[in-house]
Amino acid sequence: MSPPRQSRRPSRRPAAGAGPRRAAERGRGPNSEPRFEAFDRASEPGFEPNFEPGFDPGFEPGLHRPELLAPAGGPASWAAALEAGADAVYAGLDRFSARTYAENFSLPELKGLIDESHRAGVKVYLAFNALIKESELASAFRTLVAAAEAGPDAFIVQDLGLAALARRHCPETPLHASTLTAVHGLDGLQALRRLGFSRAVLPRELSLKEIARLTAASPIPTEIFVNGALCFSFSGLCLMSSFLGGRSALRGGCTQPCRRLYANAGRRRTFFSPSDFMAPPFLDELRRLPIAAFKIEGRMKGPDYVKAVISAYRTLLDADDFAAALETAEALLAQVPSRPTSAGFLPGAPLAPNPQNASGLLLGRLAPAGPGLGRLKLAAPLRLLDRLRLAAGAGEEGTSFKLRRMWVNGLEAELAEAGETAVIGWREADEPPPAGLLYKTGSGALEKRLLSSGPAKRLKKLAESFEPPRPVPTPPELRRPGRLPLAAPRSQPLWFWLDGPARLAELAKLRPRKIILPVTADNVMEALRLKKRLPSAQALTWSCPPLSFGSGREKLRRTAAKLVDAGFRDFLIANLGHVEMLQALRPDLRLWGDHRLGVLNRLTAEALRGLGLSGVTASLEADQESLLRLVQAGYDGGLLFYLYGRPPLFTARFGPLDLKRGAVVSPRGEKFWPAEEGGAFILQSERRLFLGGLLKLPKPPGFAGLLVDLRREPDALDAARLVKQAVERGRGSPGFAFNLKRGLR
Q: Which helix (H) or strand (E) holds 154?
């Protein structure tokens, strides 16, 4: 690649007050929606992410050399990454990956992928980052051991049980914590270090200042995303796809419900569809931080995306004259198939909703031109074999197809340039296409060339000569235990989860095992004032919010310290960072994990017990078979099940809606309500869950109880009475059973 031309132009990093358009891209334009401010000082008007005078970053200033880490969704994208100059690639197998719909690699292909990458001086990180059901552990273990024999440079893992297996049986392969662990503070990074991780992938929802502070003090190396799609919900905290159809985002099956068109207060928009993320204007500052890797999102993207993006960031990372390199990189990125782009959360401000749902390079508006034909004036070049997507309406992902025939000026053509009018063949030969916007999502010609390249041919040859690994014995921790004393208990203790202590005394008369209150300054002040009239400190448990940043985290710690000083000992935690924070206050606290910690197997529960938890809540996404396997697996620690409530389906760091504007309605008529939890924006369903099947499920010896989530209930006392009656009768009341009966995919 030729060096970037010299230029005196300064870096075009977004500045506060840079005009209405730029301000709106950062989420603070004059016509933007009210935002959920969760950025501490970083959300204040006029904030600039330059490091303020007196801020000690904790490391020697100067340029660092992070790895440029590329997505390898399939052989063609992998070959593009090698050709464009990636230092490392990350790839997934056809199972146990958080990108089920990517092309992915087979186990025979993995050995070739690793050997050929190492031959080119490129590392390979294997994404083994899905949550694992109890019934899948044995298969996952065999795949893990076979993959380790191929020699990857690290495993990227979300499931803590799988991480424990890898640490014990594949100790030579380092562990990288997936961004889906939702760790976003130093406490959480310390917990990951205790669990055996040697690197953490930080969330995409961090500002530049937050990244600087974390990387300066992190106990393990970190990597950050610098390019790709953004999710609306915080990494690892989305239940919406699973709620709507049983396809879990934490298991690779996300159906992208955030990209849909929703209605609210008379408006129909893609409220929850963020723009795509591109960080070049901030890269000169980012490359001065001690970050192990700059990661490009996109295992679902084609090789043209990978080639252009890796080439652009290679130019920036290697540049001596950053301003000149930025021009070259931006020219490359302008041709990348994507949604409209922004600098994401880096500026320290909330995002604005993105009106364009479909991802791709916009070619123009396609109009029907007869059976099997469509006509459009091209805004960008188009070639035969290009992959296209037609979006017939806002909020629709659209129909994908490959271009097989094209005419320009009445003649068949292989290539049409921008500005020309082309007639293209539609996928249905007998029907005209609907009118809509046409996007290019990939280059078929480039894919064909890359699949014919030397590395791709050698990968295929190595895969064909692959010898299956020798069978490995089942390790002791996966062997089925002997006969367990499992039976549905006569009494099923209830834990009532409230918004506040207003009706606590009345609810206490229903004799729950525990009452849970959120850790807020108002709740703590009221609880301390009424302490003599409240149930004993042993009966009260305090829940921590899933997200806490900067001064918000310190406020949470101080408030929790008041509770500990007042004699309270039980806390319900929603993030690994809470373990370190609370144990620093008092080592013998009783910590209980809520459903966000992703417990689908016994080994994950045991890993959390190893951190000091007294008990855990099974994953809310679990189906009946998964829960039965879990209780039969022999875990004898405290185990909770979520029985009733309206849990957050989206949990986001910013809110695109005014909370007072009422319900949000999906295209299928489903209603959702925006609300707040611990400083985060949440969206919850109008339908309440009632997992009645749990009442007949056998319980293990360490069964601790059923969670009854009464937060945001119009009348918590009435709801609690109805739930208690249903439990006493041994059958559920009307309510949505989530994945319990339909299954979890």
A: strand 154-157
